[in-house]
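Hi L.,

You mentioned the student needs an example of a multi-chain input paired with its predicted structure. This one should do, with 921 residues in total across all chains.
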Amino acid sequence: MSFELTRNAFGRLVLTDGEGIRHEGVLPVRAFPVTAPEAGIAVVNTEGHEVAWIDRLKDLPAEIAALLKDELASREFMPAIQRIKGVSSFATPSTWDVVTDRGEASFVLKGEEDLRRLGQTTLIVADSHGIQYLIRDITTLDKTGRRILDRFL
Amino acid sequence: MPAHESSMNNTALSPTSNSPSLPDPLSRELVPRLAGNEAILSWLELDLDTRLTFSQGWIVVTNRRLLAKTPETGETWQEWGYRPGLMLKHTDHAGVGTLELVDAQQRLANWRYTLAVNVAALKLVDHFEQHLESHVTGEPVKQANEAICPKCKAPLEPDQEECPICTQEIHTPPSTWTLFRLWRFAKPYKNQLLAGFLLTLASTAATLVPPYLTMPLMDKVLIPYQNGAPIDPKIVGLLLSGLLGSALLAWGLGWAKTYILALVSERIGADLRTTTYEHLLRLSLEYFGGRRTGDLMARIGSETDRICVFLSLHLLDFATDVLMIVMTAAILFSINPWLALVTLLPLPFIAWMIHVVRDKLRTGFEKIDRVWSEVTNVLADTIPGIRVVKAFAQERREAERFRNANRHNLAVNDKLNKIWSLFSPTVSLLTEAGLLVVWAFGIWLVSKDQITVGVLTAFLAYISRFYARLDSMSRIVSVTQKAAAGAKRIFDILDHVSSVPEPTNPVHLGAVQGRIEVRDVGFRYGNRAILRGVDLAIAPGEMVGLVGHSGSGKSTLVNLICRFYDATEGAVFIDGVDIRSLPVAEYRSNIGLVLQEPFLFFGTIAENIAYGKPDATREEIIAAARAAHAHEFILRLPQGYDSLVGERGQSLSGGERQRISIARALLIDPRILILDEATSSVDSTTEKEIQKALDNLVQGRTTIAIAHRLSTLRKADRLVVLDRGQVVEVGSHDELMAKEGAYYQLYQAQARNVDTDIDDSDDEEGDA
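Structure written out for the whole complex:
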């Protein structure tokens, strides 16, 4: 890899590229956050221009990969719904109580159009604040969850 | 996890969190830590930790310091006293807000939260900044001279705690008794409905006479004859004419009731359709952005029709059936209570069956509706885009998509039909079983001389009708569910509150001068922040050019000024009045809009020019067309101003369509003019023509112009350069060139490559 990556005192990532130019406050961005999260990560500067491209995270030196993973974890917020505990009503707007990989949450679904299919089994649920919840595979939900989803799909 | 839920509720109840409403455990923990004259100013309940998992934490701002407690710090409170150089930075990305506390050297701490508590966070930052400043400078805290809503910056009345504009969000689901809500549409016809009901009552009663007459026919005529008595022609004549008379009466009454009720239901259906459409037109662009045309068309077209059929046919039949059952039951009981009881025995079973199947069928039919709109959506996607489909030779793929949608449709229908097809035969079986019971019990009663043969015949005649009705009544389940599902989908539209609401106490502007002020405006689409902290003041009559890369927020800013959307934060003022307090239509009548892709409606050229002012005279239309340099080419058309333009104006060239749309804007003589890439889609010769037309249009009006080609903005008084949702430069062309900043770069890039656009794509913020 032809770049260096460090974290400064302000918690920003600093990338020094092959030509020795320092970019402060760079951000890693996944190209396919849902369908292929591990393949293709761009590092963009504050202007939004790409300064580095990473085909695969695991090809990187461990400490750089760790920094990037850390940054991605604190930037990406797409809780994956593991269980639907209940919904307030089958007509929208309705409040959903869910268990996600980031803990339990409840949110308001404004309309059926906020449930978007991504391929056959993946679903993205956008709540009233624009936070996106991911259901990676609807077939892995329990029976209650599938039955609830069935009413909305 | 109750902790999280409480966080949602608390902050929802008191978004302007102040110390009085500080939650109990927190205040118990915190109050002993405070110094004597220290007061809690605001607090924020965090719902995320720094690793973005849902958990509870707190940030509190007092007049001396900032305190925080998060799961990472455990039970201890971290604190930072006010000192110079301290800064609390607020950003948000993808639905998550971040607060960072930094000083000149480093980041001291950072906290995360979902946008659900954003208002409290903004308020906390405000308080922090005010008190930090007062602490550093030693001056008393500067209170903002007018109370301002922390979210939208709209001024608040002194006694108002919450902003009336921001608290309009509703999150209550509609009731499930959707069909009863149709009463709103039935109410105007209640007299006709009453007449229809009375006719139904009468005609049902008339149909019940014939079986009753079979009793004397059996007992007084046929059985005595079998036993050797002669037939009395007088009695027979009387009974037969009774049969004929009742049949004729039932026919007449039945005709009248069906006619009246069909008339009423058609009108209810039409009212429903027009009301829904009117409501739909008033909804904001945001609503249309999120929905598919095919789906909306299906809702207004076929769903209203389905409801209409339900009202005129099925509901009417059902009402008749119920009446008939009640009346029959009464008659049967009056003849022989015991036999009546046995006859009615299967009724509860059937009612129970109907109840069981109802639930399964309802969800099934809702699903079928959704799948059906999936099918129409494929059509609505493909047919307008047919050129692309053909150009990339993807006909087979599109056909496959349609086939898949249909297959899905079939699968869902098949599943439902499995239950449904079992239902009717079961009801028939129960009917036969019921008849069997009546026969058996009746024969037994006859043998005991409890009843006559005539009574048994009458009973059998009644109940064979009666059960036949039950069978058809069971069908009401499915049609009711279908109609309810349709009604729900229509009320979904009707219940949708426009995200650009009409003000409750509208302010009326007399003559508009055209001073526009954009104050600290932010706009978020979904979870993407498109505009951030935009401030802009435009004087009356000034021409401002908006410049920037695509995606920089130019079109969004213009959409906010037109009030196609409402700003997420901040506000837009016209002549000093918040545009949200003006009636929407009245406000927009002051705005002339010329878009990149002019949209012409089916109709004549004159009608299209007069679209914004349908009562314009011919002279006005011609004057507008002349000013827009459209007059001459219109005269070259075979029918002049009366020429029909094809659908969406396909028969005219791009430049011609654009000049018609300029004439349209000129005719309403707006104070504010918005040119959104008005010359982008035409070649440079046509552009010059259009430019001449635009120069006429711009005179004396406040103008906001967006343009690809910077040369088209040479007349602008000021240029505003936007970059990623923020204003980066403001000034005239010469000033900005001298500055050698963002505008200079844009200009250089264009000068190098005159024919290429400055943007990579020409579809400016198509998603906003």
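You could point out the following to them. Residues 2-143 of chain B form a domain with the PH-domain like fold (CATH 2.30.29.30). The longest helix of chain B spans residues 395-447.

Best wishes,
N.
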